[in-house]
Specification:
Blueprint: H1 2-23, H2 66-70, E1 75-76, E2 78-82, E3 86-90, E4 98-100, E5 104-105, E6 108-109, H3 115-119, E7 128-129, E8 139-143, E9 149-153, E10 156-157, E11 179-181, E12 204-209, E13 213-218, E14 225-227, E15 231-232, E16 235-236, H4 242-246, E17 268-270, E18 276-280, E19 283-284, E20 306-308
Parallel strand pairs: 1-7
Antiparallel strand pairs: 2-3, 4-11, 5-6, 8-9, 9-10, 12-13, 14-20, 15-16, 17-18, 18-19
Length: 320
């Protein structure tokens, strides 16, 4: 009886010691840093969380997070649509890929190590396929300090964010003012604001040309010309037939549809061929088929007879 009682007391004492040790974090299986032997694994962490600094938290990506998530291959890259950011690059599971402003793309270099790398696990370079329609040549790799290869897109090292716990999360956007969701080409994802419609140009207005100075242009921004062989009084055009195909007549423009030009002698010329043509100071005016873009002045001086028109209706650059 005495022997049984002694054994029972000894077993109870051992159980109390075991509970005490576990409660103080000494269980070898806990991986708690206070044991002196183990290291933090998975979601276990030391007293100071990376979330206490500009990097964010070392909590889990996906389900496991931490060291497990850091090794996850990206697989087939995909592109998601964000109302705020436009096209965003994601991995095969739909998790956002990020880039760090303090990294460099040319040459590729990562500046996220230590606690930063816990909050922002590097995306491995192996096992990656480009997003549908993307240029595979934009994919590359950079060697990290630990010798591992990290995926680069457009030269920029790619990361996930520990606080993104579900596909489509964008919790890492603009963290610390330096982390941005990546666009499919590796640049910063950014929704392009709809372009404001260009203000309609008047039928005739004035453009400042670098060589010729102020010249008249039409509603498309094309340079307006005069022909020296024409006459203003009586109003007559010497440009007919094939000439008119090369030098189209400017169609009539209302006086209220002009800006900055002389309106004296601003009348419509009824050509013998039935075409109605605008005149400035009674001179018929034309554009040039050889001008293909707004601002072109390829008709200037052609044959010594064709010249751009000043806001006062005079020939620009013609020899006196």
């Amino acid at each position: 009886m005495s022997t049984w009682r002694s054994a029972a007391l000894a077993a109870a004492a051992a159980a109390v010691l075991a509970l005490t040790a576990t409660g103080c974090g000494q269980d070898k299986g806990s991986g708690y840093a206070g044991s002196g032997n183990g290291q933090p694994v998975g979601n276990a962490s030391t007293a100071q969380q990376p979330g206490d600094n500009a990097y964010g938290s070392s909590g889990g990506y996906g389900q496991a997070g931490g060291a497990e998530s850091a090794a996850k291959q990206a697989g087939q890259l995909t592109v998601s649509d964000s109302k705020e950011l436009g096209k965003v690059l994601t991995d095969s599971a739909g998790f956002t890929l990020y880039r760090f402003d303090k990294d460099t793309a040319s040459p590729p270099k990562t500046n996220c190590e230590g606690d930063c790398a816990k909050a922002w696990p590097a995306v491995p370079a192996d096992g990656v396929a480009p997003a549908a329609g993307a240029d595979a040549a934009t994919l590359g790799s950079v060697t990290r300090a630990d010798g591992t290869k990290q995926l680069t897109v457009g030269g920029w090292p790619m990361y996930r964010y520990a606080k993104d716990t579900s596909p489509g999360d964008l919790n890492g956007q603009n963290v610390g003012g330096t982390w941005r969701a990546a666009a499919p080409d590796g640049k910063k994802a950014s929704a392009q604001a709809p372009a404001a419609p260009a203000a309609a140009m008047p039928g005739l207005s004035v453009r400042k040309d670098a060589k010729l100075g102020d010249v008249i242009v039409d509603a498309r921004g094309m340079t307006v010309y005069r022909f020296k062989k024409d006459s203003a009084w009586p109003m007559k055009s010497a440009c007919t037939g094939a000439c008119l195909q090369k030098w189209p007549a400017v169609a009539p423009v209302g006086k209220n549809d002009t800006r900055g030009i002389a309106l004296k002698g601003f009348v419509t010329f009824d050509r013998p061929d039935g075409v109605k043509q605008q005149s400035i100071t009674c001179w018929p005016v034309y554009t040039f088929s050889g001008d293909t873009r707004p601002g072109d002045t390829n008709g200037q001086g052609v044959g010594g007879t064709w010249y751009a028109v000043s806001p006062q209706g005079k020939l620009v650059g013609a020899p006196k």
